[in-house]
Amino acid sequence: MPKPVPNRWLMLAVGMIGQAASSVFVNAAPFLIPYLHLVKGLTLVEAGFLASAPLVGMMLTLIAWGAIVDRIGERLSMTIGLGLLALGSTAAALSTSYVAIGVFLFLGGMGGASTNSASGRIVVGWFPPERRGTAMGIRQTAQPLGVGIAALVVPNLVDAYGMRPTLLTIAGICGLATVLAGTLVVDPPRPSRSESEGLGHLVNPYTRDSRLWRIHLSSTLLVVPQFTVWTYALVWLIDEKDWSVLAASILVASTQLLGAAGRIAAGAWSDRVGSRLGPMRTVAIAAAATMLALGLLEGTALAVALIVIASVITVADNGLAFTSVAEIGGPYWSGRAMGTQNTGQFLMAAASPPVIGALVTSHGYAWAFGLVAVFPLLAIPLIPVRGEASPKSHDRDTAAADDGG
After folding, report:
1. Which of 27, 136, 247, 308 is surrounded by the most beta carbons within 10 Å?
2. Cβ within 8 Å of residue 386, ≥6 positions away
3. pLDDT of residue 260
C-alpha cells in the first residue's frame, strides 16, 4: 500500500515555525543590548560580542548542517537542531557569568543553522514546481516574523523580569518547535542512492557547471542593499528627516511586513513564468535603480517613499535564489548548496553595516545609498538566466526513479 501523503501546507507551517524559532533565538541577543548596557553596566563592545555569539555559531555551521540534512533527512535534522536551541537557551538562562551565557548562545546558534537547510528542503520536496516559488516565498517570511517576535518579547520581558525568565521563554519557544518538528514533519520522498547514481543526482553539482557559484555570488552582492536599508532606515528617518522614534519605528516595522509580502509575490511570479532566475535578475535591476534614485533624491520629499520601495525590492530575491539553489542541488546536494548560499549571505550581511556606517560618516547618506547601487549592478550579469533549467526537470527525474525508471 502506498504511504499516505502528508498535507504539504502543514509541512510548510511546521518548517516556518522551526525557522521562526531559530530566528527568535538568534535575534533575541541584539535586543538584550540596552538592558545589558544600561542596567547591567556592560560596555557596548561587551554587549555586542554577546549579541553576536549566536549569529557566529550559526554562520560557522550552515554548510555542515546542510551536509547532515542531505545525509539523515529533514525531520531528524530539524529536531536535533531545534533541541540544541532549547538546550542552549536553557543553559544560558541558568548560567551565572556572561562568558558562560555567550558560550551557550554560541552553541545554540550552531544548532539553529539546521533549520535553514531542512525547512528549505521540506518546501522543495513537498511542493510541485508550479507552487514551489510561492511556498518558498511564504517560508522566507519566517525570518522577519522571528525578528518581530523577538523585538516584541525580549526588551519588555527582560526589563520586567530580568535575563533568566527571558531566556527560559525563548527556550520554551524553541522547545515547542522541537516537539512539532519531531512529531509532524515527514521527510519528502527521494530516490534511493542507487537510483540517484543512475540519474546523476550524486554528482557534485558544483563540478557540473558554474550556475551554483554564480547564484551564490550574485546573492551575496544583493545582500548589501538589503542590509543597508534594514540597518540605517531607522536612524536616517530620525536624524535626517526629524521623525520621532515612534513614527520611524512604526514605518520600519511596516516595511518588514511589506517586504514579507514582496517575497511571497516574487515566488508566485516565478511559479507563473516557470523561472526563478529571470525574475531574480529583474529584481536586481530594480534594486540598482531604486538605490541609485534614493541616493540622488535623498534630500527630497520623495526619499521616504523610495526607502519604503527599496525595503520591499531588496529582499524579494532571497526566496528566488534559495529555491533555484535547492532545485539545482537536487535531492542529495541541496542541503549543502543551501548552506553555502546562506553562509555567503551571512558573511556579507555582517560586513555591510560597519562599512556603510563609515561611508555615511565620511560622505553622508546620499553617497552611501547611491554607491550601494553598484552591488546589484555587479550581480545582474552573474545571474545565470540562460543556463537555467526548467524547475520541472528535476521532478521528472525523481518521478522516473520512483517509478523504477
Report:
1. 136
2. none
3. 85
**CA dihedral for 16, 350, 375, 300, sign (positive or negative):** positive
Which residues have a Cβ under 8 Å from the Cβ of 78 and sit 6 or more positions away?
15, 18, 114, 115, 118, 119, 181, 185
Going 394 to 398 to 399 to 403, the CA torsion angle's sign is positive
pLDDT of residue 198: 54
49 pLDDT more than 70: yes
Residue type, 400: A
Q: In this model, does residue 372 exceed pLDDT 90? A: yes
Grid coordinates given for 43:
560596555
Cell for 243? 521623525
For the cut 80, the answer to whether the pLDDT of residue 373 exceeds it is yes
Q: Name every residue whose Cβ is closer than 8 Å to that of residue 365 and which is 6 or more positions away in sequence.
A: 232, 236, 240, 298
Give me the helix-helix angle, 245-273 and 303-313, nearest 10°. 40
CA angle centred on 340, ends 77 and 359, rounded to 5°: 125
Q: pLDDT confidence of 284, banded at 50, 70, 90?
A: very high
Cα gap 45→121, rounded to integer Å: 37
Q: Is the pLDDT of residue 398 over 60?
A: no
Q: Distance between CA 98 and CA 50 in Å, rounded? A: 8
pLDDT for the residue numbered 94: 95
Helix, strand, coil distribution of the chain in percent, nearest 5: 85, 0, 15
Model pLDDT for residues 264-273, shown as the tens digit of each residue: 899 899 989 8
In angstroms, the CA 116 to CA 179 distance is 18
55-90 pLDDT per residue, tens: 888 888 988 898 898 888 899 999 999 999 999 999
> On the CB side of 85, how many CA atoms lie within 13 Å of its CA?
37
Least confident segment among 185-189, 235-239, 315-319, 392-396:
392-396
Q: How far apart are CA 329 and CA 333, in angstroms?
A: 5
Full-model pTM: 0.76
Residue 8 has pLDDT above 60, yes or no: yes
Beta carbons of 258 and 141 less than 8 angstroms apart? no
Residues 6+ apart with CB under 8 A from 225: 287, 291, 310, 314, 372, 373, 375, 376
Angle of the 211-239 helix axis to the 317-329 helix axis, nearest 10: 160
Is residue 398 classed as helix, strand or coil in its secondary structure?
helix
